[in-house]
From TrEMBL:
It comes from the Bacteria. The keyword Glycosyltransferase does not apply. InterPro entries: DNA-bd_HTH_TetR-type_CS, Homeodomain-like_sf, HTH-type_TetR-like_transc_reg, HTH_TetR, MftR_C. This is TetR family transcriptional regulator. Keywords: DNA-binding, Transcription, Transcription regulation. Residues 7-18 have a biased composition (Basic and acidic residues). Residues 23-83 form the HTH tetR-type domain.
């Protein structure tokens, strides 16, 4: 019985080791790709060069990524998962937008500067290459859909039949984009200032959406 019971433990340990090795290889390819995109440009970088930079063959690269586009997508989507996790962990009695704001605050505190650099580098690749407009569109749609799904989980609503989770996700992500654009326009590279811009603009949403802005300015 002792030998038999030991076998599953050994098998689990071996499986866990394989999964950790795969995760490390995936991360190595991701880091190599983003570094080369930054140094040489997206179009000038090949999958063969990414593989060589990571110390593996091109064949190994394709075991992990179908194309170099997937390097960029995984970088931005991987960091987003932290936000979704933080949102799921918020108290159930928090209103949806409040939960999103608080989750964003926790999400920012959880991320290390390396994670911010990875996502920033990947977004720079997307926005800096006009030929990746389809990739950017695909990412934005995927991000909004995933966030709406998590909002739906918290609120017991189905985003496929109830538009509210999708609308809230769209508003929230639009505010993040607006804050990021303001930060970029300021010339700052201080991520703490980016966090402040996001906080300030999220704080405006209830007032902008729910308050009376007063009478329109008269035409001169």
């Amino acid at each position: 019985m002792g030998a038999t019971s030991a076998e599953p433990r050994e098998a689990r340990a071996e499986t866990g080791l394989r999964e950790r090795k795969k995760a490390r290889m995936r991360e190595s390819l991701l880091d190599a790709g983003l570094r080369l995109f930054h140094e040489r440009g997206y179009q000038a970088t090949t999958t063969e060069e990414i593989a060589a930079c990571a110390g593996v063959s091109q064949r190994t690269f394709f075991r992990y990524f179908a194309s170099k586009d997937d390097i960029v997508l995984e970088a931005v989507e991987g960091v987003d998962e932290y936000l979704y996790g933080a949102l799921r962990a918020r108290p159930a009695d928090e209103p949806p937008f409040t939960a999103l704001r608080n989750a964003m605050h926790e999400h920012w505190g959880y991320l290390d500067r390396e994670s911010l650099h990875i996502q920033g580098s990947a977004m720079g690749v997307i926005t800096g290459n006009p030929e990746l407009i389809d990739l950017n569109t695909r990412y934005c749609r995927s991000r909004q859909r995933r966030l709406a799904e998590v909002i739906g989980e918290r609120t017991g609503t189905d985003p496929d039949t109830d538009p509210r989770p999708g609308v809230l996700a769209a508003v929230f992500l639009s505010v993040l984009t607006s804050a990021h654009q303001s930060w970029c326009g300021s010339g700052s590279r201080d991520t703490d200032e980016l966090a402040g811009a996001i906080h300030d603009q999220l704080a405006l949403v209830p007032e902008v959406v729910g308050a009376d802005w007063g009478a329109p300015a008269s035409a001169s």
